Amino acid sequence: MSNAEDPLKPEDPYPRVKALRDTMRAEGVPDSVPIVMAGGVWFLREWDNWIDNPELGSIAFQFGTRPLLTEESPIPQAWKDHLRTLEPGDVLLHRFSPTGFYSSAVKNPFLRKLEDRSERQIPYSKVQAGEHTVQLDVGVRGKNFWVAPRDLERARGWVAAGYTDGLRTPDDTIVFVAPGERAEIQQDQKDCMGCLSHCGFSSWKDHDDYTTGRLADPRSFCIQKTLQDIAHGGPIDENLMFAGHAAYRFKQDPFYSNNFTPSVKQLVDRILTGD
I want to staple 262 with a disulfide (CB 3.0 to 4.6 A). Which of 14, 108, 143, 266 is the partner? Predict the structure, then answer.
């Protein structure tokens, strides 16, 4: 899906892929060039009407989640074990990634902290305008932040609860965080290693003047830090843990019963049967 689409309004993929193939044909692209169906693929038998279908031409299927739970998979054992416990809805499609794209990850305290942080957010103006009629008197220095009266009361409530520090975002909002959280965000931004060509979290880019020109976004996170940590055995509750939305099927699929972990070959052989 593109960033312009609403994830809460999913569409049937078949007509969309058919329209894509029609466009490719109109531009002279041969049917031998496959369209890759990526996301939500578990059993090939569930996509039987896509295979050898003259309307769609060549179709390939990407398996991103099932290979996580294989003998050769390098992810930590705690990650593998947790995948077996997931229920429907335990994977969140979110926009916290510094890449700016939608990303799927297991709901855990790490993601919940990001969700809570964005909930503690109010819009502001640098001048009195519209509904921004009162000055923000908590969380920020100076008197140049104008907010709506109801948002001022919300901000005061967050400060009373210990979220005393306000951080500006590139969308003209202020998020309220605890002092320790602010220190961690700022340290992570200082430690930026430049792993992305454009990073929403650090305002760094890898060319021209080396800056995105936008304010670093405190609602995001350092993706390099968390992926390095979880990949090397860091706590699964304190890091981003990738998984597709069909990961709950590990618990339902009899192939994985009795804690069976297949080799990659065993998994591919199984997939080719339709299961």
Answer: 266
CA distance 128 to 242: 43
The radius of gyration of the chain's CA atoms, rounded to the nearest angstrom, is 23
The pLDDT value recorded for residue 208 is: 86
C-beta of residue 113 within 8 angstroms of C-beta of residue 105 = no
The full set of domain ranges for the chain reads 1-62, 91-231
Dist. CA 215–CA 201, nearest whole Å = 9
Q: Let me know if 159 is exposed, middle or buried by CB neighbors in 10 A (0-12, 13-18, 19+).
A: middle
- Percent with pLDDT over 70 in the chain: 100
CA quadruple 250, 251, 255, 258: dihedral positive or negative? positive
Per-residue pLDDT tens digits for 49-96: 999 999 999 999 999 999 999 999 999 999 999 999 999 999 999 989
